[in-house]
Amino acid sequence: MGRTRPGDAGAKVLKAASRLFYRDGIHAVGVDTVAAEAGVTKAALYGNFGSKSRLVVAYLRERDRRWQEEIDRITAAHADPRERVLAVFDAYEAWLSADGYRGCAFLNATSEFPDPADPVREVVRHHKTALHGYLRAQLRAADPERADELMLLLEGAAVTSVIAQSAQPFHTAKRLAETLI
């Protein structure tokens, strides 16, 4: 194994962990596997993240950051708040289908970390609360309480799309959202 430059190991580990955790599940992937996939030593992994738990939190935070960028990119093309909300359904579909309908990484993590006080669950709550807040802000002139219903539609479509291995649930959810807003 070649020597990794200082500063590169963390990015390599995070990239490998992201791919492995999402594909195989967090608890199914050990730090040995992540380090090997990243091409770094376990010492480099621990030197950058301290523990597997902190690596999981970093993985979810990075995924949240990328999701926020994607939402911003997709919704920026729409001036109308209603159209921005509907674009979120398209973003969800594109995001989840690109990864082979493995599901929402945040919901997957929640099922693997049942303790509500776990730092992983805090990252999940932050992610879902931010999305709910975005929907609520877009609907503030119309009916911000609809954000609760839209979240249920989005999350239900995300789960159902995994079971069906199809984008159809997002199309149905978007059609229902159009009638709500």
TrEMBL record:
Pfam family of the protein (one): TetR_N
PROSITE patterns linked: HTH_TETR_2
Keyword check for Metal-binding: no
Keyword entries, A-Z: DNA-binding, Transcription, Transcription regulation
Feature: DNA-binding region: 30-49
Domain HTH tetR-type, first and last residues per copy: 7-67
InterPro entries to which the protein is assigned, alphabetical: Homeodomain-like_sf, HTH_TetR, Tet_transcr_reg_TetR-rel_C_sf, TetR_C
UniProt KW DNA-binding keyword: yes
Gene3D superfamilies named in the record: Tetracycline Repressor, domain 2
Protein name in the entry: TetR family transcriptional regulator
Species name: Amycolatopsis bullii
High-level lineage: Bacteria, Bacillati, Actinomycetota, Actinomycetes, Pseudonocardiales
